[in-house]
Write a structure and sequence with these properties.
Elements: H1 2-20, E1 22-30, E2 41-44, E3 50-52, E4 58-64, E5 66-73, E6 80-86, E7 90-91, E8 94-95, E9 121-125, H2 126-129, H3 138-141, E10 148-152, E11 161-165, E12 173-177, E13 180-181, E14 202-209, E15 223-229, E16 237-245, E17 249-257, E18 265-276, E19 285-297, E20 301-315, E21 321-322, H4 323-329, E22 338-340, E23 346-349, E24 354-369, E25 374-397, E26 406-408, E27 411-413, E28 415-438, E29 442-464, E30 475-495, E31 500-517, E32 521-539, E33 544-555, H5 559-563, E34 570-582, E35 586-598, E36 601-607, E37 613-617, E38 620-634, E39 638-651, E40 655-658, E41 661-664, E42 668-669, E43 676-687, E44 690-699, E45 702-703, E46 713-714, E47 717-729, E48 736-744, E49 752-763, E50 769-779, E51 784-792
Parallel strand pairs: 1-7, 1-8, 12-15
Antiparallel strand pairs: 1-4, 2-3, 2-5, 5-6, 9-14, 10-11, 12-13, 14-15, 16-17, 16-51, 17-18, 18-19, 19-20, 20-24, 21-50, 22-23, 24-25, 25-28, 26-27, 28-29, 29-30, 30-31, 31-32, 32-33, 33-34, 34-35, 35-38, 36-37, 38-39, 39-42, 39-43, 40-41, 43-44, 44-47, 45-46, 47-48, 48-51, 49-50
């Protein structure tokens, strides 16, 4: 008994001594800009003891006394390790260096920028996207970035969505995925509906406003958007996500990664399905997508093979709604598919007025670190797109379809009701390449791209009330187009002193475009563009730097521009002056820009017969603005991220035809260019696993045309969303369960985020001409919600 009693005392004392020899290590894990990295794991080497950084990069971990090694893992191939001798409670702050940046980032290093580059930009990480990634598209998830305005045809962020930056529409936002061009070669647009739920496979994105740096796609006139897909994962995982919400919106996806097999090979993927009825009548979406990636990594090599794509079936809602239709049918009225009686009243709707399109992407990337100073990138890619949109058309003239009139009971029939499909089948392929040399004082990048687009446009009548002399599978039009795009560039960022860096960027781009469509006419154009850029960055101290830059961009017309006449290429000279301030608790970016255009192709406000916006050259025009965005951390529980953009956007000496006469309207506002755009994200973290966010967006009045007509005004709007995310850490079969909720437009504001404006001439009895106009809108949903859950194995 005495022995047992002594043993118990010994064990208790030993336990107390062991307990007394444990200490706390705490600190902050920050990026190259000294901003906290959220969601990074902090592990005690060779144990299961660990934690994650909070939304501000803070962490705290209890460890035994003595020499300990901590492993910091973020979205990177190589973790950061720190070894310290622990003898007391210790503060250990860790900052990511350039050497720590993940190897995957090298894939886009040739076209991305950092704070050492005199370019205005914003970054958005997967961690920031995740709480709101419940089925809405990438433009909607970017809505709270500076100078960004987004819209949704269906009114709820699913289906066809669009983005404008600094008033420039999506045809001027140059999009690349892992450095590969994504914009459609002919229309210049980016159709996110073809890649539903792609945000779930994006590691991070960078939006460069203005001309930005040289890229591998078309010239940027509003912004460049580069997306980097999922990084290589060291550890295996599986993940199931699902969400439900208003308008019968449903999303389901599964993701997985094998982790590194034999320390070198990883296979990962995703399957997604999204369905929604939409806010607008019949504006339904049935979307499927996939993403598969295989990677090989070692100390100097990264090889990635990717296959991804999607299939969308979307009921058309691109017509918008006019005031008289709102009064007669309500603001959710959709004229697409409407069938009218002889008095012009809607009597029915065609049930298959849909857009049906498939797009598949193949990318192969090879990055090689040749020496400590040199690395190279080589990529080849191929995109296959095919699909159609189907329409019910009433009283169509036979002559428009190459058909002859017919005789029925001694009556000549000149027109018919019919259903048509307008097809697009295309191939896009090419290569991108770059080489980078870097030392302590300079970074030099040289590279380029060669890409080719081959497109077939054709139309078929699949049903007609009167078929005339048509045959099965007849094509009433059959056009082809070819576009070749070559560019080469060289960039140099040279550190003159520890505080002053000079930047130079030269790009040559050659574009050839051939088309033979009835809408375009016979086109055989070649464009040669030289795009120089230069700037400097001056570092005042550890927290402040200033930058100034000049950039020129040239851009060729798109397919729809040829419909409208004989368009000229457009030229932009972009001047930027900025200030960046960054400390562990505060980050502020402020910049002034002046963008001067020659022959800018501005939106007229009108749509063509398939809902695509039309543009025209306007001679001289400019955009002058101030942008400010900030991040403030308060008491480790509050995060405030406000931004605003104040601008003036003018056509100089604008001429147009009114009432049959050409009139000089002087300086007018550029269409779709609000003078004030503001956003805010206020986040509160009451405890580690709960995040509450209140998001706000204000967009001022904007004109839908270029004549400053009162009828062309789109009212300002102020919209607020509420977002919540709750994380459950488990020790069971499930590693983690994340619950998310999003209430959009929480105050039920009634607004439209987009619209169109058109004019037409009417002849009076005395032969004079009167110009009339009309306005259409794209109403957005009132209060609506999405609820989701993600389970990680």
């Amino acid at each position: 008994m005495k022995f047992l009693f002594t043993s118990l005392i010994f064990l208790c004392v030993s336990a107390q001594l062991c307990f007394a020899q444990e200490f706390t290590i705490s600190g902050k894990f920050t990026d190259q800009e000294n901003v906290g990295v959220p969601g990074a794991s902090v592990l005690l080497q060779k144990t299961n003891n660990g934690t994650q950084t909070d939304a501000y990069g803070n962490y705290e971990l209890t460890v035994p006394a003595g020499k300990q090694t901590l492993v910091f893992r973020f979205s990177a191939q190589n973790p950061i390790t720190k070894t310290i001798n622990v003898t007391q409670n210790t503060v250990l702050d860790v900052q990511i260096s350039e050497d720590d940046v993940m190897l995957d980032e090298v894939l886009v290093s040739a076209i991305r920028v950092t704070t050492e580059t005199p370019v205005t930009f914003s970054n958005l990480s997967a961690e920031e996207i995740a709480p709101r990634n419940l089925g809405q598209d990438i433009p909607v998830l970017m809505n709270y970035l500076p100078s960004v305005v987004t819209t949704s045809d269906a009114g709820a962020g699913v289906g066809y969505t669009g983005i404008r930056v600094r008033g420039s529409d999506a045809t001027r936002v140059n999009v690349t995925i892992n450095g590969i061009p994504y914009n459609d070669s002919e229309s210049h647009g980016s159709f996110w509906v073809n890649m539903p739920d792609f945000a779930s496979s994006v590691e991070n994105l960078q939006l460069q406003r203005g001309v930005g740096t040289s890229t591998n796609g078309a010239g940027a006139f509003g912004a460049s958007l580069n997306l980097l897909t999922d990084a290589v994962n060291e550890d295996p995982y599986a993940e199931i996500s699902g969400s439900v919400g208003s308008f019968d919106t449903r999303k389901a996806n599964i993701k997985f990664s094998s982790g590194l097999l034999n320390d070198h090979v990883e296979i990962s993927g995703r399957l997604s399905r999204i369905k929604s009825d939409g806010y607008i009548d019949r504006a339904s979406s049935d979307l499927e997508s996939y993403f598969l990636q295989g990677s090989y990594v070692d100390d100097n090599t990264l090889i990635k093979a990717l296959v991804f794509g999607g299939h969308e079936i979307t009921y058309q809602s691109w017509n918008g709604v006019e005031n008289w239709q709102i009064e007669q049918y309500g603001r959710t009225f959709n004229s697409a598919g409407a069938i009218y009686d002889t008095d012009g009243n809607v009597v029915d709707y065609y049930d298959n007025e849909v857009d049906d399109y498939k797009q598949d992407h193949f990318q192969l990337h090879w990055n090689e670190q040749l020496t400590a100073n040199w690395n190279t990138n080589l990529a080849i890619h191929y995109t296959r797109g095919r699909g159609f949109f189907e329409q019910y058309r009433q009283d169509e003239d036979f002559s428009d379809y190459g058909l002859a009139p017919i005789e029925v009971s001694d009556e000549t029939i000149q027109s018919t009701d019919l259903i048509r499909r307008r097809w697009l089948s295309n191939h896009f392929y090419g290569t991108t390449f770059s080489a980078t040399y870097e030392n302590e004082t300079m970074e030099f990048i040289a590279g380029g791209a060669w890409n080719k687009y081959e497109g077939d446009h054709f139309g078929e009548i699949i049903w007609a009330r009167y078929a005339s002399d048509s045959e099965i599978r007849d094509r009433y039009y059959d056009d082809t187009s070819t576009k070749t795009d070559f560019n080469s560039f060289a960039k140099l960022n040279y550190k003159v002193t520890n505080n002053l860096s000079l930047y130079g960027d030269l790009q040559y781009r050659r574009v050839t475009y051939e088309a033979n469509g009835e809408d375009t006419g016979l086109v055989d154009d070649t464009f040669n563009f030289f795009n120089p850029k230069a700037g400097l960055t001056y570092r005042l101290n550890d927290a402040n730097n200033l930058y100034a830059s000049y950039a020129r961009a040239n851009r060729e017309p798109n397919r729809n521009d040829y419909e409208s006449g004989s368009p000229e290429p457009e030229t932009l000279n972009d001047f930027e002056l900025g200030w960046r301030y960054a400390t562990p608790t505060t980050k502020v970016n402020a910049n002034v820009y002046y963008m001067r255009y020659k022959n800018q192709l501005v939106l007229t406000g009108e749509l063509n017969d398939v809902g695509a916006p039309l543009r025209e050259n306007v001679g001289d025009s400019y955009r002058l603005g101030l942008e400010v965005d900030a991040t403030f951390f308060f008491a480790d529980k509050f995060l405030l991220k406000p931004n605003f953009a104040l601008s003036t956007n003018k056509n100089l000496d604008f001429y147009t035809q009114i009432d049959g006469n050409v009139q000089d309207l002087g300086d007018t506002n550029i269409s779709y260019s609000p003078n004030f755009v503001a956003g805010n994200n206020f986040t509160y973290l009451p405890f580690d696993n709960l995040q509450l966010s209140f998001l706000s967006k204000f967009v001022s009045v904007q004109y839908l045309g270029n004549t400053d007509t009162e009828n062309s005004k789109l009212d300002s709007y102020f919209v607020n969303d509420f977002n919540v995310q709750y994380t459950i850490e488990t020790n069971s079969f499930f590693k983690q369960i994340v619950l998310s909720g999003l209430v959009n437009n929480i105050f039920d504001a009634e607004y439209s985020s987009n619209g169109y404006y058109y004019t037409y001439d009417g002849e009076n009895s005395d032969g004079s001409i009167t110009t009339y106009d009309g306005t259409g809108y794209y109403p957005q949903a009132g209060i609506n919600f999405l609820l989701g859950a993600t389970i990680t194995f």
